[in-house]
Design goal:
Number of domains: 2
CATH class of the largest domain: Alpha Beta
Number of strands: 16
Helix content: 10-25%
Radius of gyration: 18 Å
Largest sheet: 5 strands, antiparallel
Shape: globular
Strand content: 35-45%
Structural class: alpha+beta
Distance between the termini: 13 Å
Length: 267
């Protein structure tokens, strides 16, 4: 099944004092592979300007945005339509600048500790098989309940296992850490998900992909207990959240920041 998904994503930063300078890396352009085709897509900025765009080592399309001097509000609007084919989570063979073996290496957010080892070791079946990977996903969801507000972007996989709570980002990091403990190449994915019960959302989604013999990269959404279908739009990939964060950057000054997100995904 193929779907045409219409997406409008508005991110606004408000500051209580003028900001003299800032730079942001925006990774919000969907990928053109793995069963996805961009029909149209645009990024516009109010309170700043687009300096340039480029593809990073993970083949994410990055737009670099600078702040206008003395700005107190910056709004980034991304919108367009993406045609998505249901490939049952199969993205295909590895490609890009980063070698596949690098995705086997732990990172600060996916470090391997006793909780990660226990989850990986308790999963039954042949390590690395589809049955084992789906079983691992189910074990993580059973042990780490989905609950917003219990973690942040700096929470590690091991910390989320210890607390027993997390969101999609934490589930992805735990899954990746378990796979790397088992010697498998795994990566983080950020993107969009069309919900069945609502159009408006307040955040993007995240899941993981594993390099499986004979299939290539295959996606697993632990939070929803399934592999991605035609409701999912892949946007950015990396070793962990830090590589695939929708927006990251830096700014000068000590102004306080308030972030608001308006996101609509619909067929």
């Amino acid at each position: 099944m193929t779907k045409a998904l219409s997406i409008r994503h508005v991110t606004t930063y408000r500051y209580n004092d003028p900001v003299p300078f800032g730079l942001q890396q925006v990774r919000l352009t969907p990928k053109q592979n793995g069963g996805q085709t961009i029909r149209d897509w645009s990024i516009s900025v109010d309170g700043g300007k687009v300096e340039l765009s480029y593809d990073d080592p993970h083949m994410n399309h990055v737009t670099l945005i600078s702040f206008e001097p003395g700005t107190t509000e910056v709004t980034i609007t991304c919108e367009g339509t993406v045609i998505v084919e249901d490939t049952h989570g199969i993205v295909g063979n590895h490609s890009g600048f980063v070698p596949g073996w690098l995705y086997k290496q732990p990172t600060p957010l996916t470090k391997i500790g006793p909780g990660v080892r226990a989850l990986s070791n308790r999963t039954e079946g042949e390590t690395g098989s589809l049955a084992w990977l789906h079983g691992l996903s189910a074990n993580i969801l059973e042990m780490v309940e989905y609950r917003a507000g219990e973690s942040d972007t700096g929470t590690t996989a091991e910390e989320a296992v210890a607390t027993g709570y997390g969101v999609c980002q934490d589930h992805a990091h735990i899954f990746i850490a378990c796979c790397r403990h088992a010697g498998l190449a795994a990566r983080y994915v950020s993107g969009y998900l069309m919900m069945d019960d609502r159009t408006h959302q307040n955040a993007t989604h995240a899941w993981a992909e594993v390099l499986v013999d004979g299939l290539g990269w295959v996606g697993f959404d632990v939070s929803n207990g399934m592999s991605p279908d035609s409701r999912y739009v892949r946007v950015a990939t990396g070793l962990d959240y830090a590589d695939a964060a929708p927006i990251s950057g830096t700014r000068l000054g000590t102004a306080g920041e308030v972030l608001s997100v308006q996101l609509q995904v619909q067929q």
